[in-house]
Every structure is written in C-alpha cells, then in structure tokens.
Amino acid sequence: MRYAIVDGKKSEAQPKLKGHCPNCDAEMVAKCGRVKIWHWAHKGCPPCDPWWETETNWHRAWKNCFPMDWQEVSHIDPYSGERHIADIKTPYGFVIEFQHSIIHHTERYEREAFYKNMIWVVDGLRNSFDLTYFNIGISGPVQNNPLAYKINWWGRSRLLHNWADSGAKVYLDFGGENLWRLIIFDSEKNVGAVGPISKEIFIQNCKNGEPISVSYIDEEEK
C-alpha cells in the first residue's frame, strides 16, 4: 500500500517508520528497499484486502493525478460490512480502479458488483507486444459521433478478450496522450471498436464529477 496512518495522518512509507492500516487498523511496516517501489506492508500477515495488487510506477503516476485524500479509500458495503480499498474514490462516490496485472474474470465481476459506480483504467503496456497489436489492428474511423475506430486483434495477446464482457467502462492506457475506451469487442471474431479520449479531459471529468467525455468529429470540419 502507498499510505498508512502515522500519528493520525495519511503518510507514505519512509525508512523505520511505523503506522496502521487505514482499512483494518493492523500494524504496518515501511518497506523501503532499493528494488521495489517504497510501500507499506501488513506486519506478519497478508494484506487485508485480497483484491490488492502489487503497485507499479504506472499505478503511482495515475494516482498522482488525483488528490491524496481520494487515493486508497476504504469502500464499505452498508449491509454486509464488506470492505475493500479503492484505488481512487472521489467525493462523488465514483471509483476508479487501475489494473496492471491479469485479473480473473470472477474477481472482476465481484469488484464491479461491489463498487457499482466504477470504471477501469487498464495498463496496455504490461506486455511489450500489445501496443504493436493495437497499432496494427486499428483502422477507421467508422463512426464520427461519438468517434469510434475499428480494431482487429491478432496474435497471442488476450488483452481485449479479457475485458470484452466487463460490466463497467474500460479505458486502455497505451502510454500516449489518449486513453482508448473499449466500446465493444467480439471475442470469437477478434474484432471490435474503440474510441479515444484525452487523458487530460478524462482526469478533469473525474475530478469535477462529470460524465466522462466521448470524442467526436465535427461534421463541419471534415
């Protein structure tokens, strides 16, 4: 985890620092080695949230786009008492999950059902060849309003297959200035559609509690 509670304040890991988990109040120890990104770990026990994944610099870069108070916020089911740590939870009750590692479809369904009002931002650069497949397969546009491009997906990668039936909106991050909204994907035909959105606009929409924009081509400018 990035944060623990130290002397009543949300704090990042520093050498020899001790704190408590903001989700379960267990004792936390600071892991500040030379290889892994500095983080907090539960002392002598696994993380309290089984959905938690090891953080990367990609996670941190995205979290830094939002206020600290929105990062790693406990989300509690008012009926069951079940609780999980959202990567980003805005004051508007909206959750953003940043997913780098492969996630089993069962866990994905569970997260979407638990958070309800949420979206996924998926690291499209986890495998070095995914960006190549994306660039080879994209063509169009096939629709102007909202803007959509056809995508054929070849090769051994399962990136689009893994997210084709998501119940929440999915945005793919291939490292450029845009995110790519996964509009639809047919896993049998390996064909679908994606739409671009500026990362800057995406972040501002989320910060302002606005519906996330879709891009379009002005017919008068064609």
Automatic annotation (TrEMBL):
Organism: Azospirillum oleiclasticum
Segments forming domain Competence protein CoiA-like N-terminal: 20-47
InterPro entries, per database record: CoiA-like_N (IPR057253)
Top-rank lineage group of the source organism: Bacteria
Protein name listed in UniProt: Competence protein CoiA-like N-terminal domain-containing protein
